Amino acid sequence: MHRNITKSKRLQQVRYDIKGKITTEAERMEDAGIPIIKLNTGNPAQFGFETPASVVNSLERQLPLSAAYSQSRGLWEAREAIVAYSRSKGIPDVRLDRVYTGNGVSEMILMSMQALLNPGDEILVPMPDYPLWTAAVRLSDGKAVHYRCDEASAWFPDVADIRAKVTARTRGIVIINPNNPTGALYPDTLLRDIVQIAEEHGLMLFSDEIYDRLVMDGLSHTSTAALAGDVPVITYNGLSKSHQICGYRCGWMTVSGGGEGLREYLEGLDVLSSMRLCSNVLSQSVIKAALSDSAGTDRYIQPGGRLYEQRQCAWEGLNRIPGVSVLKSRAGLYMFPRLDLTRHAIYDDEQFVLDFLREKHVLLTHGTAYQWEQPDHFRIVYLPEVNQLRDVVERLGDFLETYSQSPKIYRQKIQKTT
Fold first, then answer.
1. How many CB atoms lie within 10 A of CB 107?
2. How many CA within 13 A on the CB side of residue 130?
3. How far from 321 is each of 15, 305, 324, 393, CA to CA, in Å?
4. d(Cα 286, Cα 284) in Å, to the nearest integer?
5. Which run of H or of E encompasses 291?
6. Average pLDDT per 10 consecutive residues for the chain, totaling 418 residues
7. Which one, 9, 82, 262, 354, has least CB within 10 Å?
8. Helix (H/G/I), strand (E/B), else coil: 10
């Protein structure tokens, strides 16, 4: 008789519902021949966004030269381009030996948490968050403590809540700006307030800025590290969204500030970086060309451009549905609409998204997947072209017109979690 093989206890509290059981159901439906509109992940190429020719041409040129390992931190040319880009963003002290390339930003997030955390250490993470952050903290034996972002204040972080949740076990603060899932873009004054908290308590800042080149409405993005002085900041970025190459898995992180106080932490990053030998060398080889070519991205985010017009379509359409409201995204690929629970009887938002998928064949993500406490939000990706977005909004309106859940669903959910 074979013994049951159980999963690691580290995984008991780890979830990544963006690709969870509802996505599995969508895949089952597709296998049965049912077309599904997938609005659960930001995957531009899936919706016809083309990779810039400069990136493709660079990939073709570098292919014969990319068969060997690179240095563990990454190709010299790639890291040099990242340093130049960082300096253009106002980050003065990024050096080649403080740049790490990765197989997407996801790998970098986990690596930076593993290098830092001891059991019971705390990281302040926004709520709503991008769920990989909470998962990475927990996988690293840390505790994710969620600070509130306020929908009534344009989804900006509640600085007072951040300050109140700092304890003797807190090691750092995560900032997601531009924000996923809300699309908020943070002003300099807010970033300075968070930097001040980090400085007062000797904390690191972890600034996820993957959408910094997808800012609309004439606004501009400021890197946290540009305002942080000597406060240690890890800045995360990559090419997946801005250059429509999610499948290349091309990301990086830069370390700034901290001085000699970061020596041991950097040694830890070096060990973890070396253990996976290096990130994908072919993907690294396009970084220089990509960072010198923003024309394709700029075209999409200007009035008349695809992303700009699709965002407008989604925002207007969602707000016309009775009982749905949403703030306009200022950057990125997403919005985080609110459901009026006084109008729509919804007790389990995951069940709501699953029922919508089965009836209308559209895949969304429920708000509690992003650590949101109430079942009254969902995330939608506005990557489809305008005609398809209008169709999605119409399907959602039709669905909500008659949809309701029994309180029994809520009671069953509570019983499962207690």
1. 20
2. 26
3. 30, 25, 6, 8
4. 6
5. helix 287-291
6. 74 69 93 95 87 81 80 90 95 91 91 95 96 93 96 97 97 97 97 97 97 94 96 94 80 91 93 89 86 83 95 97 96 96 92 96 95 94 96 97 80 50
7. 9
8. helix
